Amino acid sequence: xxxxxxxxxxxxxxxxxxxxxxxxxxxxxxxxxxxxxxxxxxxxxxxxxxxxxxxxxxxxxxxxxxxxxxxxxxxxxxxxxxxxxxxxxxxxxxxxxxxxxxxxxxxxxxxxxxxxxxxxxxxxxxxxxxxxxxxxxxxxxxxxxxxxxxxxxxxxxxxxxxxxxxxxxxxxxxxxxxxxxxxxxxxxxxxxxxxxxxxxxxxxxxxxxxxxxxxxxxxxxxxxxxxxxxxxxxxxxxxxxxxxxxxxxxxxxxxxxxxxxxxxxxxxxxxxxxxxxxxxxxxxxxxxxxxxxxxxxxxxxxxxxxxxxxxxxxxxxxxxxxxxxxxxxxxxxxxxxxx
Length: 339
What we know:
Helix 4 crosses helix 5, helix 8 (about 105-115) packs across helix 13 (about 215-235) and helix 10 (about 160-170) packs across helix 12. A hairpin with a 3-residue loop joins strand 3 and strand 4 (about 125-130). The model is unreliable at about 20-30, about 275-280, about 290-295 and about 325-339 (pLDDT under 50). The chain has two domains: about 1-275, no CATH class; about 295-339. The chain contains 15 helices and nine strands. The strands form two sheets. Strands 4-3-1-6-7-9-8 form a seven-stranded mixed sheet, with helices on both faces. Strands 2-5 form a two-stranded antiparallel sheet. The chain is α/β, with parallel strands linked by helices. One of its GO terms (biological process) is response to hydroperoxide.
């Protein structure tokens, strides 16, 4: 199984460079996985050249960013290949990559991630988890023209991005492509071609709220957490994904809403473990209170009887007290008369 994931706009350049990553590891990363160049690196060079032909204002207008971000990326592209190199899955730092948290994986999980992740990107087409890349900013939806193509979707389709992903999946024995990418990025891939030409089943991973609309940040985090789940459990079938619950147990598989093309997970505000604990406590209370499953009406009737019994008992105690008081008064009066 391989996963498709979108990149992130936020980059972690300060701590994710190739050199600093090695320093952070007890064992050099190269002993765990193979760092490599992106498969479509040559094709990406044409886009770099197109970006280098833009002046600062043109670049800002194309990217739709602030002056500061425009300055940063203008300088990046001006001397692009002399920048520091970064490992792709460590460089990206948005919510999805916090959910992925590749830096905390063990050796086996890293090896599985290496074979199971394709990050779709506007500049590189797609990169694998441990491809080495330069920092950049170029979203897939931007209308950068190159080689006669009017936008990046057209460009990457002419560069056979789908075929390249299909070959990557086949090389790693994958029979399922799990689409965890956003629509902006996913539509650059021809899913029908993957299914027809490579005999690979494509399934969309859908995250939604149990009630209301799911916040974007939760959806992004869940996509990364699902990729992590694939890397840590190495599933071979869609059924193997049903145990996914997210890092804090907020998600649950929805068999009712899942179908042949979508596997759906619902997010609950209360984590699964806490919901289960609350359920058990409620069942215990029902048993203590006279057996499970009592209706509200029965419970109200029992309470009314208890209240009535208490009132009758109190009334009896008051009457007894009054009779005792009158009796004592008569005795005192008789003794007084005798005196």
